[in-house]
Amino acid sequence: KKKVRKPQEEWYRVENTHEAIISEEVFQKVQELIASRRRRQKNGTTQIFSGLVKCADCGWSLAYGVNSQNKNPYAHYHCSKYGQGLRQCSMHYIRYDVLYAYVLARLQYWSMMVQKDEDKLLKRLLNASDRERNSAKKKQAAELKKAEKRKAEVDGLFAKMYEDWSAGRITEYNFNMLSEKYQNEQKELETKIRQLHETMEAAVQTAADAEKWIALMKQYVNPVELTAELLNTLIEKITVHEAVKGEDGSREQEVEIYYRFIGKID
C-alpha cells in the first residue's frame, strides 16, 4: 500500500492524548529559563552554560572569555566580580573544555544509573537530599536564631530609647538619629528572617521531586554532547571553587552541580 505524505499545513494536531513525562508547568518554566539565559556573544554564538555557572565564594556569575593570544586559542570562565577589577573575589578560573567534559561525564553517569536501576537511584537521591537538607537546615536554623535574637534586642533598645526621649533624657536630635538607625536594622532583620523561613520551607524535598528529575533524565538517554536545552532542563546551577595547587604543582578544583528539583548529589 502506497503512503501519501500530506503537506504540513494539512496536518491535524491532537494534544494531551498521552500522559506527559513532565508537567506542562515544568516544561514552560524550563523553556523560559533557556530563553532568559541565552546571551549572544559578539561573534553571534550562544554559550550553552550562560547563566548557569556561578562563583562558589561570592555567588556572581562566571564570565566567558577566550584566550586568543595563545598559539591554540581556548575558551575559559572566570569570576565576573574579580573581572571587574573590584578585587573582592579571586579569579576562579576554569577552562571551558574542562568544565564541558566534567558536566557531560556526570550527566552520562546519571543517565546510565537511570537505565540500570531506577528504583535504586530513587532511594539514593532521597538519601542524598536528606543529608543535604539536614546540613542546610542546621545552618539556616542557627542564622534564624541569631537574627531573631538580634531583632528582639533592637526592639528592646528602640522601646528604651523612646522612653528616654519621652522623659527628656535624650535630645530630639539624638532620638531621630538613633531612631532611623534602629528602624533600618529592624527592616533588614525582618527581611532576613522572612527569607530564612521561606528558604527552609522551600527546601523540603519529596519523592515527587526526585521522580520529576528522573523523568527529565529519561528524555536525554546517553547524551553525547551538551546543549543549552539539556543543561537548563536538568541543572539549576554549577558552582566553581577556586583552584588549589599542590606541592607537586598539580592543580585541583572543585566543581559542584546542583540539579533541578534535587539539588547537589554525589
TrEMBL record:
Residues 175-206 form a coiled coil. Residues 48-108 form the Recombinase zinc beta ribbon domain. InterPro entries: DNA_bind_recomb_sf (IPR038109), DNA_bind_recombinase_dom (IPR011109), DUF4368 (IPR025378), SSR_resolvase (IPR050639), Zn_ribbon_recom_dom (IPR025827). Pfam families: DUF4368, Recombinase, Zn_ribbon_recom. Transmembrane segments: none annotated. Residues 1-37 form the Recombinase domain. One of its GO terms (molecular function) is DNA binding. Residues 202-266 form the DUF4368 domain. Keywords: Coiled coil, DNA recombination, DNA-binding. This is DUF4368 domain-containing protein. It comes from Coprococcus comes. The lineage of its organism: Bacteria, Bacillati, Bacillota, Clostridia, Lachnospirales.
